[in-house]
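User: Need the bound-state model for glutamine:
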Amino acid sequence: MAKYIFVTGGVTSSLGKGIIAASLAKLLQARGLKVTIQKFDPYINVDPGTLNPYEHGECFVTEDGAETDLDLGHYERFLSIFTTQANNVTTGRIYQTVINKEREGAYLGKTVQVIPHITDEIKRRMLLLGQKGDYDIIITEIGGTVGDIESLPFVEAVRQLQWEMPEEDCMVVHLTLIPYLRAAKELKTKPTQHSVKLLSQEGVHPDVIVCRTEESLSQEIRSKIALFCNVKKEAVIEAADASTIYEVPLLMMRERLDLLCLKKFNITNFHEPELTKWKEFLDKLKYPKSKVTIGLIGKYIELQDAYKSILESFVHAGAVNECKVNIVNVHSEFITDENVSEKLGNLDGLLVAPGFGHRGVEGKIIAVKYARQNKLPFFGICLGMQMAVIEFARDVLGLKDAHSTEMNINTPDPVIDLMEGQKQVTAKGGTMRLGSYPCVIKEGSLANEIYRATEINERHRHRWEFNNAYLEQFENAGMIASGKNPESGLVEIIELKNHPFFVGVQYHPELKSTVENPQPVFVHFIKAAREFAEKRNAIKAPVLQGEMI
Ligand code: GLN
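Assistant: Bound-state model below.
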């Protein structure tokens, strides 16, 4: 029988519930327990796949091809586990299931209501992952903030489960904010008191209160929170701001959050946390020996969450290389032939990001050309790879108007074209080529050196592909397809022969990078960038010495 931890949030959004949930899961996993995490989101979209990244950050794709909330990325990066569609449920999905059942006549003439029909469906899904005996502990993060109208049915479902389950099988962790008033030089507990009161009014009493705070909580403040919020003093947990999210499991360990849960669950079969690899990673992250500057070219750069998995993959790859990765965001819409060398001249590597639609693509193509001609390490992901193909077609193959039919349906040279299976698709949600597919790698290629394998699996999210009618022309001119899908022949990886590092991938390697298994293309890209930086510094060095004399 699995045990259940529900994580709710109060006071404000963006407190980092996902990181707290993932950190707790990490500690329990490190103590030898089988743990997974799921997220219940209150919005009415069936999944976040149709959401603009500006609204909700990146869409994280799982192995089984589910388009999910970006917090699932944190779960996978912390725990090195695969999540699935079952790990992310939205209000939209719940209602869709209930309404479909109603249409089938499954409710036998009953009036279909929020309680019990919607809450029953929520509870069914909350318990789903725990039913096969695969896990000891299931952590469920409830999206949104307590008090929101839309999260009410989820909190109600938690109330019912808390009431139905044995006391030692279920617990609620509430994350709140303790603001520091600079003028008064004081931490304030009132918002937390109110948020716990709100939660209690909805019938749920938290077992633990995790307090996000900029300043350390004194014993006095802890006692006050415990008294007013009706929890034991040891159940008031400090979550101080950390320099990196990867530090949070250690902060939670210091506060004994994991032990508190194990005590409540009467679990005694655990060992000291095994975090050797995690701590090694943190050490390398904190004390880098070198530094590189990578340009991230995209059109959503104002919002860091839009490229969350890419940024985290750089953190992992930087640590392996003992190298600090400094990311410079470059808005593709503002790159022109005239300003490209000024904008990209100080970079040690260039990553062209995934994306959709025509906005900003010409700037991306100019950036790729700069990287190709200046032997700057280049890494293109999905749309980024497609841009590299278009640039090569135009500038090297002389196909001046080559394009993707996504941007120009009438191009005479559709070097990137809609996949055959996509031609009849009209609905937007969940209809791309999604999830994990195999890729066979050419022996002796750079991709082969990077992966040290000839068969890999990576995750996808796209509708367009390399047009194989042009492949021979590309390969004869030096751009080779070093990875292909074994069944369809779809080009998964392209690379340039006469370049130190020029790799484009149709898949999303960033979705599989974890702290304990950094993604190999990112690792090699950073290595190439470091070498590029070293060479450049070696050229600069004599000049500097000369100047000093
Ligand atoms: N828009 C492109 C396609 O659908 C690329 C998608 C992406 O970058 N994820 O093929």
